[in-house]
Amino acid sequence: MRKTLGVNISHNCSFAYFENDILKQYYEEERFNKIKNFDPEENEDSNYTSEYQALKKFKNVTFDVVVFSSYDRGHLQIELPIIKHILKQIKYKKYFFNINNHHVYHAICGYYFSKFQEAIALVTDGGGEKVFKPFLNFQVMESIFIINKKQIKKLYQNASNIRFNYFSNHIKPEEENIKSYDFDLTITNKPLGGYNYGLYRKKAGFKPSEEGQLMGLAAYKDKSTNLDKDTLDIAHKAQEETLQERIELIEKALTYSNYKNIILSGGYHLNCSNNFKLVKHFPKLNFFVDPIAYDGGTAVGAAYYYENYL
């Protein structure tokens, strides 16, 4: 029996245990330590000496391989110390880690749960792997893949130099389409939802990484509440603008493939309201939303990727 452990070491730190390609156990460390959205980098001490409570669930398991997932934030300075500490706790040395597979793991997690034989996988996330250009780092914000049981193929990526800042002061878009290897790449300085949300986000008391919470207020725009009207207006605009971007991304995906099965993953697709609107907008497509669309799910995707696509 082959035993594989997938580990996400970014925020929503998680552990996915597979036996012969079947997910047997899944845990998120925050359920044990009670630190919401637990991120080893932000919450560990400098020596990474605290134990991961979730790993105690596997104290009697001998793994064949441990596969790690993260987004690109510095391998030697951040990821490697975390990886070594986790491996020490389970007394294991063999591992696999690819810093450029963040969106791939999102897509594969959705595919694993969907039970589709073949599909288009769309990932919309705050970032992930990096694209380098002179003097600037661009984070991949959107990806399109086709996926089946034999391969996952990248078709398109959109990279922005505005990381975790969908609502920052708007910069005039300057897009550059690049044919990179065997897929299309768009470089832009436009955030998802290119509106000028910065001042409104600050006025509402939201942090740069809390755009989802702000957009959630859109549901109250036409209701009688004590919420700030300007904040509700900007939340509504964010919902409408990013919905249109998702529609355009799906339309672009359909130019690459005639698959009718669509998988939605990445943190943006925790947006249930806009997911439902996408289903209504494309009535002839079969949608499946990744049940672990946030970074926790990449532990599932990482383990399944290693055993099936590497």
Q: What do you see in this structure?
A:
By secondary structure, the protein is an alpha/beta fold. Helices cover 32% and strands 26% of the residues. The chain is built from 9 helices and 13 strands. Strands 6, 7, 8, 9, 10, 11, 12 and 13 form an 8-stranded mixed sheet that branches. The longest helix is centred in the last third of the chain and has 28 residues, at 229-256. The protein is globular, with a radius of gyration of 20 Å.
**Mean pLDDT across residues:** 85
The assigned CATH architecture of the largest domain is 2-Layer Sandwich
Shape: globular
Q: What is the number of beta strands?
A: 13
Overall domain count: 2
Name the poorly predicted regions.
164-173, 193-198
CATH classification class of the largest domain: Alpha Beta
Note the main sheet: 8 strands, mixed
And the CATH topology of the largest domain?
Nucleotidyltransferase, domain 5
Number of helices: 9
Specify the CATH homologous superfamily of the largest domain: ATPase, nucleotide binding domain
Question: Which features would summarize this protein structure in a list?
Answer:
Nucleotidyltransferase, domain 5, five-stranded mixed β-sheet, alpha/beta, globular, 310 residues
